């Protein structure tokens, strides 16, 4: 006999719920969407109408908790930890959008509570479910690049996310700027591929009153594939190449943003430069959000473990906190005031 469908509530009805979490949940065969919750209750009702679903709409999660088994927490960043703790205390499994919290201490509190209550806490790092994550691991395990030399990851463009709340531009709500937004994905992937960060240097363009729009990191890793140095650049204002290039002694590998199911190898064969496109032979036709939800459901059923759990989220947030605590300004010579010319001797 098949187990009953998982009763799911979605907390926060902004753009990420509208475009990703809700569509994935509605087509999942083991999920019943029982409630949409948003402090702006008309927004929740409007979302239900738009998708033509008959479920509860509420302005507060407490009223729907008796009717659900699990919750997707898609609130603004600063509300993630408090809501996740409340949900875990109520005995609910939680898939929390990244970042799990805006501080590592709050993230650790969530992780420890989930462990004590024997509940599933998964963190919404959907990009870890792109095929390129596993493809690069295969290339590294197979030593296809030779000895690792360095990597360069440039990710960014003009900000165009249709945020319902605008919290991205408020430090107290977002916890940071581009590093907290994009950086959690990139740092999580880099640590997963190359191992722990041993040294780091960080620069951004925050002058102390808002959130950074641009940042640059220089990192050193020491992992099972050997040491590697890397540079990461992120931007909300400038269109960058949007690709990761990993350089090795025998070949280079490229992962391109927007190509989640393939990567590219560059090498010389017979004296000629070649490029190879690598894909998995059998790739499930699902988006990263569908795969992420599958993993959440299977973890609740006891068949898997969360690909990204609370402890992993803590490690990434500790790196981000270090960056913010040791930030240097990106050089901006055009903004510097030139010293006044001396009139001595005039």
CATH topology of the largest domain: Dihydrodipicolinate Reductase, domain 2
What fraction, in percent, of the residue positions are helical?
25-40%
State the total count of DSSP E strands: 15
Q: What's the CATH architecture name of the largest domain?
A: 2-Layer Sandwich
User: What average pLDDT do the residues reach?
Assistant: 91
Strand/helix succession: EHEHEEHEHEHEHHHEEEEEEEHHE
Describe this protein's structure.
It is a single chain. The chain is of the alpha/beta class and 346 residues long. It folds into 2 domains: 6-126, 3-Layer(aba) Sandwich (Rossmann fold), CATH 3.40.50; 127-286 and 309-329, Dihydrodipicolinate Reductase, domain 2 (2-Layer Sandwich). It has 10 helices and 15 strands. Strands 14-13-12-11-7-10-9-8-15 form a 9-stranded mixed beta sheet. The protein has helices spanning 15-26, 41-50, 80-89, 104-117, 131-141, 171-174, 178-181, 183-194, 288-301, 310-325; strands at residues 6-11, 31-37, 56-58, 70-73, 93-97, 121-124, 148-156, 197-204, 214-223, 226-235, 243-248, 252-256, 263-269, 272-278, 328-329. Helices cover 31% and strands 27% of the residues.
Write the layout of secondary structure elements.
Elements: E1 6-11, H1 15-26, E2 31-37, H2 41-50, E3 56-58, E4 70-73, H3 80-89, E5 93-97, H4 104-117, E6 121-124, H5 131-141, E7 148-156, H6 171-174, H7 178-181, H8 183-194, E8 197-204, E9 214-223, E10 226-235, E11 243-248, E12 252-256, E13 263-269, E14 272-278, H9 288-301, H10 310-325, E15 328-329
Parallel strand pairs: 1-2, 1-4, 2-3, 4-5, 5-6, 7-10, 8-15
Antiparallel strand pairs: 7-11, 8-9, 9-10, 11-12, 12-13, 13-14
Helix pairs in contact: 3-4, 4-10, 8-10
């Amino acid at each position: 006999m098949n187990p009953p469908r998982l009763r799911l509530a979605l907390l926060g009805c902004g753009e990420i719920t509208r475009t990703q979490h809700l569509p994935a949940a509605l087509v999942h065969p083991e999920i019943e969407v029982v409630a949409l919750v948003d402090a702006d209750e008309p927004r929740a009702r409007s979302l239900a109408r738009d998708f033509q679903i008959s479920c509860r709409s509420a302005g507060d999660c407490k009223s729907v908790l008796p009717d659900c088994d699990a919750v997707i927490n898609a609130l603004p960043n600063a509300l993630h930890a408090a809501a996740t703790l409340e949900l875990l205390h109520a005995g609910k499994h939680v898939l929390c959008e990244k970042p799990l919290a805006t501080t590592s201490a709050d993230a650790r509190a969530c992780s420890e509570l989930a462990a004590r209550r024997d509940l599933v806490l998964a963190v919404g790092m959907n990009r870890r479910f792109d095929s390129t994550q596993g493809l690069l691991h295969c290339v590294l395990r197979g030593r296809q690049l030779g000895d690792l030399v360095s990597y360069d990851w440039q990710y960014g463009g003009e900000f165009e996310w249709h945020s319902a709340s605008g919290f991205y531009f408020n430090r107290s709500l977002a916890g940071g700027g581009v590093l907290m937004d994009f950086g959690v994905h990139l740092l999580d992937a880099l640590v997963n591929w190359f191992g722990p960060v041993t040294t780091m240097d960080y620069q951004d363009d925050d002058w102390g009153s808002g959130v950074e729009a641009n940042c640059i990191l220089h990192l050193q890793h020491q992992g099972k594939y050997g040491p590697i140095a890397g540079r990461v650049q992120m931007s909300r204002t400038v269109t960058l190449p949007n690709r990761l290039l990993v350089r090795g002694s025998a070949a280079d590998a490229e992962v391109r943003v927007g190509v989640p199911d393939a990567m590219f190898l560059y090498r010389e064969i017979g004296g000629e430069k070649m490029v190879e496109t690598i894909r998995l032979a059998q790739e499930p036709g699902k988006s990263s959000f569908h795969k992420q939800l599958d993993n959440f459901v299977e973890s609740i059923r006891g068949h898997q473990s969360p690909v990204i759990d609370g402890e992993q989220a803590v490690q990434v947030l500790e790196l981000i906190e270090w960056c913010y605590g040791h930030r240097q300004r990106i050089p901006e010579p055009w903004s510097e005031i030139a010293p006044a010319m001396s009139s001595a001797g005039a």
